Amino acid sequence: MSREKYTYLVKQKAKELGFMYCGISKAEFLEKEAPRLERWLNQNMHGQMHYMENHFDKRLDPRLLVDGAKTVVSLLLNYFPAKENQQQEEDTYKISKYAYGTDYHFVIKDKLKELLNYINEEIGEVGGRCFVDSAPVLDKAWAKKSGLGWVGKNSNLITPQVGSFYFIAELIIDLELEPDGPIKDYCGSCTRCIDACPTNAIVEPYVVDGSKCISYFTIELKDQLPQEMNGKFGNWVFGCDICQDVCPWNRFSKPHNEPAFQAHPQLTQMKTSDWQELTQEVFSQLFKKSAVKRTGYNGLLRNIMFVQGKATAQEE
């Protein structure tokens, strides 16, 4: 079989498994990303995400992650919820849409394993590894390289006719496939994401200071939340979708059809008072398999109290 035929089989199977798009890149050193990543780390834009400092070389070269790697297969999986499956109360506390359902790590890992098994059955013995945001892989850089979108001014990957509400995952394999090429940047002169960010985390177009992002504060930061951020979180208590919600390209977002990503019915109807009275038992029930477990019950309460304090300060 030819490289073209292998590539066709992989992309067809990815589609069958529910992936929105599949793009192919040659596994090689990411030369342009190296100085960018180094500068970002040197300026401490990763805050307390110290794991970002580890495995610098592996982040830039997939051949250090998989022996004999020849190809990076990038995949996108939609998580945008239908309107009726989003949080319904306008001024309730909010969690990022990606965390509504089952933790994406589990959902995508299963799909990737199935894809890798299929490759081995149909093509022959192929060595490779599955990656879902849990290893030193620059997923946006690879997705961009394979033509799945461009990296926008909010540092999210954006895809024409689709937007940016999706997860990115990779298979790095020792099989040579037909690579795709990158597409151009369509952000133009738009600065809506920069203008809308309440914590000024987008310090310049295409550069996000992770240590100023609401998602960082509400998920990654384990310390007390800094007082200078008081009043700047809006109602966000886990993650933040502001820079995606205001992006004009996300008017093209279509609802996903992945049952595992459906929100718990109780979650979409929760009022502010329900969040404030949240018990450990209800937390465990609502977020049994959710990414919200990353911050834990006490972490979520800390975030709710911080946002609540902002509301109190304003009332006074």
TrEMBL record:
Its EC number is 1.17.99.6. GO terms for cellular component: cytoplasm. The active site is at 133 (proton donor). Coiled coil: none annotated. It is found in: Cytoplasm. The keyword Cytoplasm applies. Pfam families: Fer4_16, QueG_DUF1730. TRNA binds at residue 222. InterPro entries: 4Fe4S_Fe-S-bd, 4Fe4S_Fe_S_CS, QueG, QueG_DUF1730. One of its GO terms (molecular function) is metal ion binding. Residues 175-207 form the 4Fe-4S ferredoxin-type domain. SUPFAM superfamilies: alpha-helical ferredoxin. GO terms for biological process: tRNA queuosine(34) biosynthetic process. It catalyses: epoxyqueuosine(34) in tRNA + AH2 = queuosine(34) in tRNA + A + H2O. The keyword Secreted does not apply. It comes from the Bacteria. Pathway: tRNA modification; tRNA-queuosine biosynthesis. Belongs to the QueG family. Catalyzes the conversion of epoxyqueuosine (oQ) to queuosine (Q), which is a hypermodified base found in the wobble positions of tRNA(Asp), tRNA(Asn), tRNA(His) and tRNA(Tyr). Monomer. This is Epoxyqueuosine reductase. It comes from Pontibacter cellulosilyticus.
